[in-house]
Amino acid sequence: MIAADLLTYTMELGAHTRVGTVRVCCAVAEHVHARRDVVAGHHALLRELKRHWRFEVREALPDNADTVAFGTLSGAFQAGVQRAELHADGPPVVLSAGLEDGDLRLFGVAGCPAGAVLRPAECAD
Question: Residue 16's domain is classified under what CATH number?
Fold first, then answer.
Protein backbone atom coordinates (compact mmCIF):
# COMPACT_ATOMS: atom_id res chain seq x y z
CA MET A 1 0.00 0.00 0.00
CA ILE A 2 1.45 3.39 -0.95
CA ALA A 3 1.06 6.66 0.99
CA ALA A 4 -1.79 7.91 -1.24
CA ASP A 5 -3.78 4.76 -0.42
CA LEU A 6 -3.16 5.19 3.32
CA LEU A 7 -4.50 8.75 3.21
CA THR A 8 -7.86 7.55 1.86
CA TYR A 9 -8.04 4.03 3.30
CA THR A 10 -11.23 3.31 5.23
CA MET A 11 -10.50 1.16 8.25
CA GLU A 12 -12.71 -1.81 8.98
CA LEU A 13 -14.85 -1.66 12.08
CA GLY A 14 -12.75 -2.70 15.06
CA ALA A 15 -9.44 -2.18 13.25
CA HIS A 16 -6.72 -0.03 14.75
CA THR A 17 -7.38 3.44 13.36
CA ARG A 18 -4.97 5.52 15.44
CA VAL A 19 -1.27 5.76 16.14
CA GLY A 20 -1.32 6.94 19.74
CA THR A 21 -4.08 9.57 19.64
CA VAL A 22 -3.58 10.50 15.95
CA ARG A 23 -5.58 8.98 13.06
CA VAL A 24 -3.44 6.76 10.82
CA CYS A 25 -4.19 8.92 7.75
CA CYS A 26 -3.10 12.09 9.56
CA ALA A 27 0.06 10.41 10.89
CA VAL A 28 0.97 9.40 7.32
CA ALA A 29 0.14 12.91 6.06
CA GLU A 30 2.38 14.46 8.70
CA HIS A 31 5.22 12.14 7.67
CA VAL A 32 4.76 13.05 3.98
CA HIS A 33 4.42 16.81 4.73
CA ALA A 34 7.90 16.66 6.27
CA ARG A 35 9.27 15.11 3.05
CA ARG A 36 7.40 17.05 0.36
CA ASP A 37 10.44 17.20 -1.90
CA VAL A 38 10.31 13.41 -2.33
CA VAL A 39 6.69 13.45 -3.58
CA ALA A 40 6.88 16.65 -5.66
CA GLY A 41 5.66 15.02 -8.90
CA HIS A 42 2.83 12.99 -7.34
CA HIS A 43 -0.11 15.35 -7.88
CA ALA A 44 -2.86 13.02 -6.61
CA LEU A 45 -0.94 12.43 -3.39
CA LEU A 46 -0.33 16.16 -2.91
CA ARG A 47 -4.05 16.93 -3.46
CA GLU A 48 -5.06 14.33 -0.88
CA LEU A 49 -2.35 15.52 1.48
CA LYS A 50 -3.90 19.01 1.64
CA ARG A 51 -7.11 17.57 3.18
CA HIS A 52 -5.12 16.29 6.16
CA TRP A 53 -4.20 19.68 7.56
CA ARG A 54 -2.32 20.24 10.80
CA PHE A 55 -2.20 23.43 12.86
CA GLU A 56 0.49 23.71 15.54
CA VAL A 57 -0.33 26.32 18.18
CA ARG A 58 2.48 28.71 19.01
CA GLU A 59 0.35 31.03 21.18
CA ALA A 60 -3.34 31.40 22.00
CA LEU A 61 -5.32 34.34 23.34
CA PRO A 62 -8.88 34.46 24.69
CA ASP A 63 -11.40 36.46 22.65
CA ASN A 64 -14.74 36.62 24.48
CA ALA A 65 -16.09 33.03 24.56
CA ASP A 66 -13.58 31.87 21.92
CA THR A 67 -9.81 31.47 21.67
CA VAL A 68 -7.67 32.69 18.80
CA ALA A 69 -4.69 30.43 18.12
CA PHE A 70 -1.57 31.68 16.35
CA GLY A 71 0.71 29.12 14.81
CA THR A 72 1.71 27.14 11.73
CA LEU A 73 -0.67 25.49 9.27
CA SER A 74 0.35 22.55 7.07
CA GLY A 75 -2.13 21.48 4.40
CA ALA A 76 -5.28 23.37 3.41
CA PHE A 77 -7.95 24.35 5.92
CA GLN A 78 -11.25 24.56 4.00
CA ALA A 79 -13.23 27.82 4.10
CA GLY A 80 -15.83 28.18 6.83
CA VAL A 81 -16.21 26.48 10.17
CA GLN A 82 -14.92 22.92 10.50
CA ARG A 83 -14.85 20.31 13.20
CA ALA A 84 -11.33 19.84 14.52
CA GLU A 85 -9.59 17.57 17.00
CA LEU A 86 -7.50 19.40 19.57
CA HIS A 87 -4.52 17.32 20.67
CA ALA A 88 -3.04 18.65 23.90
CA ASP A 89 -2.84 17.00 27.32
CA GLY A 90 -5.12 13.96 27.46
CA PRO A 91 -7.37 12.50 24.78
CA PRO A 92 -8.31 14.58 21.71
CA VAL A 93 -11.19 17.03 22.11
CA VAL A 94 -13.53 17.76 19.19
CA LEU A 95 -14.42 21.43 18.68
CA SER A 96 -15.43 23.92 15.99
CA ALA A 97 -12.72 26.03 14.36
CA GLY A 98 -12.45 28.59 11.59
CA LEU A 99 -9.49 30.16 9.81
CA GLU A 100 -9.30 33.97 10.10
CA ASP A 101 -6.38 35.76 8.44
CA GLY A 102 -4.10 32.76 8.95
CA ASP A 103 -5.04 32.33 12.62
CA LEU A 104 -7.40 29.67 13.92
CA ARG A 105 -10.48 30.69 15.93
CA LEU A 106 -11.58 27.97 18.35
CA PHE A 107 -15.28 28.54 19.00
CA GLY A 108 -16.50 28.17 22.58
CA VAL A 109 -13.03 27.23 23.84
CA ALA A 110 -11.64 29.05 26.88
CA GLY A 111 -7.94 28.48 26.19
CA CYS A 112 -5.42 26.37 24.35
CA PRO A 113 -1.85 25.54 25.41
CA ALA A 114 1.15 26.41 23.27
CA GLY A 115 2.37 23.30 21.48
CA ALA A 116 -1.13 21.87 21.05
CA VAL A 117 -1.96 20.49 17.60
CA LEU A 118 -5.30 20.62 15.75
CA ARG A 119 -6.25 18.21 12.98
CA PRO A 120 -9.43 17.64 10.96
CA ALA A 121 -12.08 15.76 12.94
CA GLU A 122 -13.62 14.45 9.70
CA CYS A 123 -10.84 11.83 9.65
CA ALA A 124 -12.41 10.39 12.80
CA ASP A 125 -15.85 9.98 11.15
Answer: 2.40.30
